[in-house]
Design a protein that fits this description.
By secondary structure, the chain is mainly α. Helices cover 68% and strands 0% of the residues. The protein starts with 11 loop residues before the first helix and ends with a helix.
Length: 135
Amino acid sequence: MRKLPHRIKLSKSDAELASCYFACAGAVFAFGSLIALFFVTVNLATKLMQRFVISMAYGPDRYAAGLRIVKKNFQLSDGTTLPGRWEFVFILGTFMCVCLVMFPYVRLLQRWGLLRSEDDSPPPEAKAKDRERSS
């Protein structure tokens, strides 16, 4: 027969404080991971779209030869600038890549209960009942 682990009995105030600490740790994890994932995703998406755009505009041999976007104003490593429609494709593609990663992750955090929206909050009647019980 397996022995069950000993459970610590906490007072009501200690239990509330512990739940507050866990909620704070969850919020730090949620927002910290969102920020880290955002920067990693933007970095990878720009590299992916840079390869795609340069290969489509100039051919894969130019990308393999080292042609890259080197400045924010779409200046290329050979001194020329990226044509206007390819700038739009680069920006839109990067945005779409970031959205395809970030939106499912935010939804996952919501399902885990680490992020809440206004729709997730209880109705005002339930809040009033909770206040009556606590007083």
